[in-house]
Each structure stands twice: as structure tokens, then as C-alpha cells.
Design brief:
- The chain is built from 14 helices and 10 strands.
- The protein is of the alpha+beta class.
- The protein starts with a helix and ends in a 16-residue tail after the last helix.
């Protein structure tokens, strides 16, 4: 979810716009101090005393500020790991720069940045480097920034350097940033090894991999996100906003509601009440046209009709139970379940899902029919959100997310 990027974007904005104390440090060279990124992935050394700000408890991020307004943001991404808010990994520095530009530098009305090529820093530490300098303009004002994207054998890195917004910003920038670029040192420390999930946990994640991917998560992490305070707060706010879930009780009520009734029962009731389930499909289309059904209502009813024709009483139950798995997983990240409780609940739900459908294809088709029913959008309409979800499913399938055996005997390995 690109909304996940909000807090990290705030750190980027802080790099360029926060008001510093404005106290100059003179021209003399200062002792270098070493600062380590969250998670211990890398360290940078800089002149003077710095304060760590906005690290968000996300591994691989280091955000630093100094009293004279100087700001540094460094982000490290192990190769093969999805980027925060991006949902997939990257394969080149050029792709990394395009990501940084879209996420941080040019975000529509929020901010616009005009860049030109610049000399890189720390070039001996990296094998590929793209460095640029330019002016970022936001509602609060404009700021000069330096950005560099680079890679080592094991990871990609983004560096942002600037000074805070102040009347003499550009003069300060020209005085401070060149000195930082000249004196800054970089050390790559311990790149975390990618730990694969067990087949059981891969199965659980696959049930809601579409929404994990759409929200910029990582299907290689239990429940799709790191279990830290940043995501705890974030997913708690998402659960409250989208579901009205604020505690364990309301979470369990939502889970129970989806398992017992959900949209599947509503769809079956609608088919019965309209008499649609007694018609052939062509007659149903004709009847809806004659009755003046709104376009989205026609799409919803046809989605329910096609789903029931394919999966009987479990018509769009895939849509409901996928969201049950999502709520259980995200309820754990939000702190409403312990890890063990969430995995136990997930296993019980997964066993029920196996009884409803015979394959990943059947389950995901039911899920997609359900989404189409819920939003009233045609899966075949390339401009629709429903089509977008279908494409995410196809990409995940091609990536092997659904290669885990549908009939897997689950193991309680937690």
C-alpha cells in the first residue's frame, strides 16, 4: 500500500524541510562519528554530532539530523528483498532510482523535483552509482537536495543529503553538503540472510498474497510485514479505518462474521431473491437490461451467478475466507493476537478452506469473483481495480507463490 510509505515519506520530507537551530559550526574539520542503521545492515560516519530521527524501526533505514540543519537519510535494501511500498524486488540501480524518484521526489501535487547529474560520493564502495542534485518543491517551500542510488554485491542503497528549510537555505547547502560528501564514510556490515518460510506459512500467506502484494508487503514474511512497532501502529490504523477493528474483541467479531455469513451469503441470497439462479446466463443478462439495472449492479449479479455456477454454495466464499486469513495475520502484526494464536487460527481456517475448494485456481477464482461482486467492477475491464487484482494474481502465480501443494498437511512449526 502506498499509504505505508507515509511515515517513510515524512522522514524524506524531514531531510529537506525541517527547521534546524541555525547555529553555524565554522570551517574547521570535525571528528567523524559513526552511526549504524536499524538492524545493523550498514553504518555511515559523518563529521559532528548527529541525532537519529524517524528510523521507524524498519531495518535498513538511518535518518540523521545535525544542529546546523544538515540532514542525511540512508536506506539499504538487501538484494532479492521487496522494497517498502513497492511489493517486489529490483534488479538495477536505474530501477532503484526510478523507485526513489516516484516515491520520494515526484509525487504529484505533494512534491516535484528537478534534477541534474552530479558527482557521486563513496564511489569506491559501490560498483554502480547514479548521483543527482536538484530542487525539490513542496507546499512548504523549496529545498536543494543531493540523491544517490548505488549497489554492492549484496544490496542496493539510497542516500539523500540536504539542509533544513531556512531563509539562507541555498547558501547553507553550498557550505555544508559538499563537506559532507567529501568526509562521509560508508561501511556495509551484516546483510541479513533471507529466511524462507515453511510450506505451512507459505500456504497461509498465499491465501491473501494479492492484498499483501497490493499493499507493498512481502509474501516471504509471516503475515506479509515485519512484526515491529511501525507496522503494528500502521496496520492497527488500517484495521480501524477499513474494518472498525480496535481490539481483539472487534477483530474476532469481524472474523466470525466473515466465516459465518460474509458476502458469500449475501450473494446467494441476492441470486435467490431475484430469481437469477433459476435462469440461464443469457436470459439473466436480457432480464437485467430490460429492468434497467445499473452497470455495477449487473456486474455484481453476474459475478455472483458465475461464481455459483462454478463453485456452488461456496460461490464467492474465497473472497470471504481470504480476508479472514488477512485479518488474522494483520491482527497479529497489530498486537491483537500473539504469533502462536494467529498461526493456530490461520491453520484452522486454512483447513476449512481446503474443504471448500479443490485447488489454488478454484480458490483464487472465487476470490476474484467475490471482489468483482463487492466493488461492481468487471474483471475484464482493463481500467478497473478488479482487473488490477487479476493481474496481481497472475504475477504471483508466475512467481511461484501458489506452487505450494494445495493439499498440504499443515505442520505446527511455531
Amino acid at each position: 500500500m502506498k499509504r505505508i510509505m507515509g511515515a517513510l515519506l515524512a522522514a524524506v520530507m524531514a531531510v529537506t524541510m525541517l527547521s534546524g537551530c541555525g547555529r553555524g559550526r565554522g570551517e574547521k574539520e570535525e571528528r567523524l562519528n559513526r552511526y549504524t542503521a536499524q538492524g545493523g545492515m550498514f553504518a555511515i560516519s559523518l563529521p559532528g554530532e548527529w541525532t537519529e530521527e524517524g528510523n521507524l524501526e524498519v531495518d535498513g533505514i538511518l535518518s540523521l539530523e545535525r544542529e546546523d540543519g544538515a540532514s542525511v537519510l540512508a536506506i539499504g535494501i538487501p538484494k532479492g528483498e521487496p522494497l517498502l511500498g513497492y511489493g517486489s524486488d529490483i534488479n538495477s540501480v536505474e530501477e532503484l532510482f526510478a523507485y526513489a524518484e516516484a516515491m520520494f521526489l515526484n509525487r504529484g501535487d505533494e512534491c516535484k523535483t528537478v534534477l541534474s547529474d552530479d558527482e557521486p560520493v563513496l564511489s569506491d564502495d559501490f560498483k554502480n552509482v547514479t548521483a543527482k542534485e536538484g530542487i525539490m518543491t513542496m507546499a512548504a517551500g523549496s529545498s536543494k537536495i543531493f540523491i544517490q542510488c548505488a549497489e554492492t554485491e549484496k544490496a542496493y542503497y539510497i542516500f539523500l543529503l540536504s539542509v533544513s528549510d531556512m531563509p539562507d537555505h541555498y547558501e547553507k547547502y553550498e557550505k555544508i553538503v559538499p563537506s559532507l560528501k567529501e568526509q562521509m564514510l560508508f561501511e556495509e556490515l551484516e546483510i541479513p540472510e533471507k529466511e524462507g518460510l515453511s510450506d505451512t506459512l507459505r500456504w497461509f500467506n498465499a491465501c491473501y498474497a494479492v492484498i499483501i502484494e497490493q499493499n507493498g508487503g512481502n509474501v516471504e514474511l509471516a503475515a506479509g510485514f515485519e512484526a515491529n512497532s511501525f507496522y503494528k501502529e500502521l496496520l492497527a490504523s488500517v484495521l480501524e479505518r477499513d474494518w472498525g477493528i480496535t481490539d481483539r474483541k472487534s477483530l474476532e467479531e469481524s472474523v466470525h462474521g466473515l466465516m459465518s455469513d460474509g458476502h458469500n451469503q449475501s450473494a446467494l441470497d441476492e441470486l435467490a431473491q431475484t430469481g437469477a439462479d433459476m435462469m440461464n446466463r443469457d436470459d439473466l443478462v436480457t432480464a437485467m437490461e430490460k429492468s434497467g439495472f445499473a452497470a455495477e449492479d449487473k456486474i455484481s449479479l453476474l459475478a455472483a451467478y458465475d461464481a455459483k455456477a462454478a463453485y456452488g454454495e461456496h460461490a464467492i466464499a474465497g473472497w470471504d475466507v481470504s480476508r479472514v486469513m488477512q485479518l488474522i495475520g494483520w491482527g497479529y502484526i497489530a498486537g491483537y493476537y500473539t504469533y502462536e494464536e494467529a498461526m493456530d487460527e490461520s491453520m484452522e481456517t486454512a483447513q476449512a478452506i481446503q474443504q471448500m475448494f479443490g485447488s489454488w485456481e478454484d480458490f483464487l477464482n472465487s476470490y476474484l469473483y467475490g471482489y468483482s461482486y463487492w466493488c461492481g467492477e468487471d474483471l475484464a475491464d482493463t481500467s478497473s481495480r478488479a482487473y488490477g487484482r487479476l493481474q496481481i494474481y497472475k504475477e504471483l502465480k508466475a512467481a511461484g507463490v501458489y506452487d505450494v501443494d494445495w493439499e498440504l498437511n499443515f505442520t505446527r512449526d511455531w
